[in-house]
Design brief:
The strands form 2 sheets. This protein has a 5-stranded mixed beta sheet, sandwiched between helices. A two-stranded antiparallel ribbon has the order 4-5. The N and C termini lie far apart (70 Å). Helix content is 55%, strand content 18%. α6 links the parallel β6 and β7. It has 7 helices and 7 strands; from the N terminus they run ααβααββαβββαβα. By secondary structure, it is of the alpha+beta class. The longest helix is centred in the first third of the chain and has 40 residues.
């Protein structure tokens, strides 16, 4: 028990000095314990953050994305809180890496991450799930809302002028989305639908947003 103190009622100077020394030592141990505990809590919080966030963009990573999507799908089944899952893939990103190097590619990803954040609502979530791929979880929106948000984001990325070492780069974004609570039995099915919608956009010309179409998936 680190808060124990001697009462300080010694009848001699020697015992008083011993009591004072004990109390001083006890206070030092208690303070050291508090400092150590605070450092452990800080380190734990830092490790927890690192485990769920992408170190390059500071966005939630794939693990955090999967957790958030599982929670939202469960909420959708219980309370009908629908939303949309969007998969976003950057167009013409490879030339930035090839010509400007990976430093340019990393800088561009940070710029795009900030751009996405600025175009989403406070209740929405954007994650970097790998490479130049991002996932957006739009909460409490209709299919029309999702299409509008995704299209505006495509326009914003298209308008982006990224400069690196005196050279300007132009990129684009392809977004496919599927509605959460739209009859998908699992997170895996929902992810496949949104991913396939994004693939369909890339195949059909890139640079725009498209909702999942069951006929494309079965084709």
């Amino acid at each position: 028990e680190l808060d124990v103190q001697v009462t300080g009622r010694a009848g001699s100077e020697e015992l008083q000095a011993l009591e004072d020394g004990f109390n001083s030592m006890a206070r030092s141990i208690a303070n050291a314990h508090k400092t150590l505990q605070a450092r452990i809590e800080q380190a734990t919080a830092r490790l927890s953050h690192q485990a769920l966030h992408d170190p390059l963009t500071s966005l939630p990573n794939r693990r955090a994305f999967e957790q958030a999507l599982e929670e939202l799908l469960s909420a959708s089944r219980r309370a009908g809180d629908h939303g949309a899952l969007c998969f976003m893939d950057l167009d013409h990103f490879k030339p930035v890496n090839d010509r400007g190097g990976h430093a340019a590619g990393d800088a561009l990803l940070r710029v795009v991450a900030d751009l996405i954040r600025s175009h989403l609502r406070s209740e929405d979530t954007v994650c970097r799930i790998g490479g130049d791929e991002f996932a957006l979880i739009l909460r409490g929106c209709t299919s029309a809302d999702a299409a509008r948000i995704a299209s505006e984001l495509c326009e914003a990325v298209r308008a982006l002028r990224f400069e690196w070492e005196g050279r300007e780069y132009r990129i684009g974004a392809s977004i496919g989305f599927a509605m959460i609570g739209g009859g998908f039995a699992s997170v895996a099915e929902l992810v496949r639908a949104a991913d396939h919608a994004c693939y369909t956009v890339k195949r059909e010309g890139r640079g725009r947003a498209m909702a999942y179409r069951p006929e494309d998936f079965s084709a």
